Amino acid sequence: MSRVEDAVLDWPVEPDDNRGTALWRAADIAAATGGKLGGGDFAVSGCAFDSREVMEGDLFIALKGENADGHRFVDGAFLKGAAGALVEQAVAHPHVLVADTMAGLEALARAARARLDPAARVIGVTGSAGKTGVKEALFAALDRSSRGRAHRSVKSYNNHVGVPLSLARMPARTRFGVFEMGMNHAGELSALTRLVRPHVAIVTTIAPAHIGHFSGEAAIAEAKAEIFEGLEPGGVAIVPADSPHCALLVAHAQRHAGLVITFGTAEHADVRLVDALPTVTGGTLVTAEFSARTGAARKLCYTVAQPGAHWAANSLAVMAAVAAVGGDLGAAGLALAEMAGLPGRGARHAIAASGGDGSGKALLIDESYNANPASMSATIAALGATPARRRVAVLGAMRELGEGEAAYHAALAEPIAAAGIDRVVLVGAEMAALADALGKNAQGALAAGFDMVHVATAAEAAECLAAAGPQGGDAILVKGSNSVGLGALVKALIARNGESADTNGGHGATREN
Fold it and tell me: What is the pTM of this model?
């Protein structure tokens, strides 16, 4: 037998291979929550608090919300295959009875974190933009190198319910855990990070997201810096060197971290972007340099599949974190090179389109899940760099911007002009300031062939696009705050125009924060 065959057959024996396959057993849930077992023994393979998302073998957690009581949906959860429930009142199904199901979920989250092997490493990610993409890239890198033993929060489960749920879903055999943490008020991250207890904490960027709840960007930076409060002793903090709030973040991090690493284009960055070259597939070839402070001075060259300077910058945070937890940087490079856009956060769809350049298809870029001034500017710039016959931007209102709302919207006129956008569809009352700014600019940089429409709703925006029809060679960006409802517009475009087989690949008409 060859050495290669020996290596394939000699699968490593892990110390925890004798652990059971169940995520939780009823007795463990009762012990973690201080609850009382009822209705018979059970074991679960997952956790859910939304009865619509329950899968076979799940633990259904009957939370009480502002608008609904989960106990009303216990029977339905079991009809969908739930194996057990965490409840505040006895039910006619296998369950663990607790005084408060939210407190019970948090207790289960703490138990999940506590049972990890001491060698396991946990990463926490926050930031005003890019945290979901960084989280997904980290998961892809670490899952590849650990043979499927990485875990992360799914979707954008990053709040006071989503974070403990994501922890409760973490298998005991996890080698790497990656958790996204969000906030829109001071104090929220402080509680979340103490649940997660990360070994590495990342702040991707600081921007005026949710600024309506804060006195300014510095206050947002202060709130984001709360993530460092939960760091394990000797932990690593990773912060953006190019942010004007870098010094503030570093000062906060130094109180809790054993090591603070900065990333970005600045000369003083510990993980520095040396070069960024566009690739033929629309991504970026990145050369990054690690300083001696990181513990391993080196230069790396890798490809980032996702377009835009913001993704090149985010990749530095990913590489810094992978290095900090002892992960495989080669696997991280492969993950970044293969990473597709996320639904609502950069997913790219090739849809059928007539006329235009005769190619029969147009590129639809789905950024409909969220928007703030920083992410809006970054994605508009990425659209400008996308090869296309005609560039169309459907831009929805940015919410929770407070007193500066009009100014933040109006300021988008500059990146729109710089990107050479051919047609703009503005959606929402808040976009009136941008419509006014673009109108005043119409005799300047935007004069030639510029087309602008301002509508009140996503439904009206869909009608505008349908009337003009996507044309062959178009690149269409759809971005706005989730509450604007542009996700429905994306779905309608795909349903009406179909989707080609090369979705999420390549660039132009073929080829995520």
Answer: 0.84
